[in-house]
Amino acid sequence: MRIGTGRAERVGPLNIALWLGGVALIAIGYTRARRPWARYQELKAQDANVARYESWRGGVRNDGTTGASVAMGVLRRQAQIGGAIAIAGVVLVFLGFLIR
Predict the structure, then answer these.
(1) What would the DSSP string read from start to end of 30-49?
(2) Is the N end or the C end of the chain the one with fewer CB atoms within 10 Å?
(3) pLDDT-derived band of residue 65, with 50, 70 and 90 as boundaries?
(4) Quick count: other Cβ atoms within 10 Å of Cβ 12?
(5) Closest CA to 96 of 4, 8, 11, 15
(6) Is the CB of residue 97 less than 8 Å from the CB of residue 14?
(7) In the predicted model, what is the mean pLDDT of residues 48-70?
(8) Who's near 40: CB < 8 A, 6+ residues apart?
(9) What percent of the chain has pLDDT over 90?
(10) Which residues of 33-55 are buried (b: 16+ CB within 10 A; e: fewer)?
(11) Statement: residue 58 has pLDDT above 90
(12) How many C-beta atoms lie closer than 10 Å to residue 27's C-beta?
């Protein structure tokens, strides 16, 4: 019931569909982003460890493209796509509350 209007607001099927679709997209986006992001963080930590070792050893590190850097790019992109899906879900849930 809205304050001051004296009438009850009904939740329509569109609202429910937007909420359910939004929650589903949030869950899908989270599951799609979780594993690539964790693996990306592991590879990033390994890369930093190698850089520390190379600087301690005194060697010059080759800054060229490696298999790990390519994998990090792919994993980062997969995590970004999963995050975008989750954000789209949040927008749908918000629209479900906004639309009357």
Answers:
(1) HHHHHHHHHHHHHHHHHHHH
(2) N
(3) confident
(4) 12
(5) 15
(6) no
(7) 78
(8) 72, 75, 76, 79
(9) 62
(10) beebbebbeeeeeeeeeeeeeee
(11) no
(12) 13
